[in-house]
């Protein structure tokens, strides 16, 4: 940057380029000349936003984790720690347009590293903790990493073997545990380095920052091919957070948020971090073993007013509650069924615009649902959100029946964070919500009221780093982002996802079949099923729900207790997937599965959408075994390749 652009961090460098693919280039902000106030809100940088919030809410807790709920992370302290971290990064050699890659679980150190990299004029890059060493190398190479921050030795061992292949790498930092390599810097040492540095270099770096330059890279989940690096500028992040805040009508300085989202995913960065930074709220991080049972303990301790989680978290809470309910006696089950019926009807009526509280719902809410919410720590929660992937309608219906409405938020890495959102008076069981004010949604090439969902707004990304071809495939000449999702928009403006364009199955008769909705229908009819995926319509591959390994979430052979109980009710006393398959499987089990598929087929929209055959796979899907991406979406090509022999038997 030349000397004339030395008025950062809240400056905007003049440019006419709306799409760029180089880390040191600037993009024109998509600010309309006319429109709602939120559309023309003055841009602000990430450093500017944090400094403003620290001034307005200096003593409000910013970041918290177990055993440190309110220790040393007030916004004023948070800002100071970010500045110290930024000074340390500059001392270690962080250059402009180069990155700090962060590989670890949710923690204050993660966020301080992320924002610290931006303050220093570098680029923050989150890497999924589930990534393989090769995937970590890809992210570090593409982003020209100067510094890599890892959580512990497990993550460190993904970096050390490839250290010599990273030409720009200058330092590795580990923020928990003692490094096994003497050249790796501890978090305490990093902060000490920063404390010893004068402010001169940092202030100079802040002056050179521009709102319309890349400050964050988010790597796509890599469902197909290598992950692409999504370039986001300051306005993408801070304006999207403001838009979300306005849509949710969040109160400044009084919100508490508990997150279970991987921070390397943009939905977490915007929904949790930048939204909380915008309103001066506290973000409480769940423990890394949350899915093994500790999440509820965190919720009970914190009693959040907002709870954001991926669908898998809601699924785990549902499974646990169903296990508890199964142990109840006849009277408790009868009372629960009565209460749930009233709650479900109340919320379904509310969705339709019918405002009425039956005496049954009022009584159940006071005597039963209050206790349920107390037991899972959601008694103060006014907003429950599911993000990263759509929540199944049947799961939404279950939580409505216990008086816990869950709102879907839809976005993608290329759109910074949220684009549509369910809120009161703008929700139902199938929708992903209404477009957030200031953003726009349209259907490309619509046919029978369905088409590809496209997005427009200030939150749309700059481009894929060093990949102009893919960028131009994704953003058209008018600036619309093509999502690859097939969807529709109803007369109320509610948006629906009906499938993925690349996943459409074309039958011999030429009919296009979106598999996702059918898979959700199968899982609703067969609660024992964990995953369902199809090929060459109509056949289906099923996996049973199993226990998982504690450390990495890999599926075990042991069936969950709920599945075992269901099998016993059929007269098939198996405890493992192996036993199920060795039994043939049992004709009684096959009949039960086929009856479930028959119920799905009865409501199929056409004969082409009727499932003809099934096969049971020998293991459940997981991230670590490769069938699921980081956001828990099925990698269909991986599944088809891995189980090619089983698939061929179906068709031969």
Key structural traits:
652 residues, alpha/beta, GMP Synthetase, Chain A, domain 3, twelve-stranded mixed β-sheet, eight-stranded mixed β-sheet, 27 strands, 37% helix, fatty acid metabolism
CATH topology of the domain at 505-651: GMP Synthetase, Chain A, domain 3
Mean pLDDT: 87
Quaternary class: single chain
Helix content: 25-40%
What is the CATH homologous superfamily assignment of the domain at 505-651? ANL, C-terminal domain
* Main sheet strand line-up: 1-10-9-11-12-13-14-15-20-19-17-16
Low-confidence stretches: none
CATH architecture heading of the domain at 505-651: 2-Layer Sandwich
Largest sheet: 12 strands, mixed
Shape by Cα distribution: globular
Beginning-to-end CA distance, first to last residue: 64 Å
Strand content: 15-25%
Total strands: 27
Domain AMP-dependent synthetase/ligase: 51-465
Protein name: long-chain-fatty-acid--CoA ligase
Organism: Molorchus minor
EC number: 6.2.1.3
Write the layout of secondary structure elements.
Blueprint lengths: L45 H11 L6 E2 L10 H18 L6 E5 L4 H12 L3 E5 L5 H10 L2 E6 L2 H7 L11 E4 L10 E2 H9 L4 H9 L5 E6 L9 E5 H15 L7 E5 L5 H14 L2 E4 L8 H9 L3 E4 L1 H16 L3 H22 L7 H18 L6 E4 L6 H9 L4 E6 L6 E4 L11 E3 L4 E8 L2 E7 L6 E2 L3 H7 L6 E9 L4 E7 L4 E2 L5 E2 L1 H11 L3 E6 L4 E6 L1 E3 L6 E5 L1 H10 L6 H6 L4 H16 L10 E4 L19 H7 L1 H8 L1
Parallel strand pairs: 1-10, 2-3, 2-4, 3-7, 4-5, 5-6, 9-10, 9-11, 11-12, 12-13, 24-27
Antiparallel strand pairs: 7-8, 8-18, 13-14, 14-15, 15-20, 16-17, 17-19, 19-20, 21-22, 23-24, 25-26
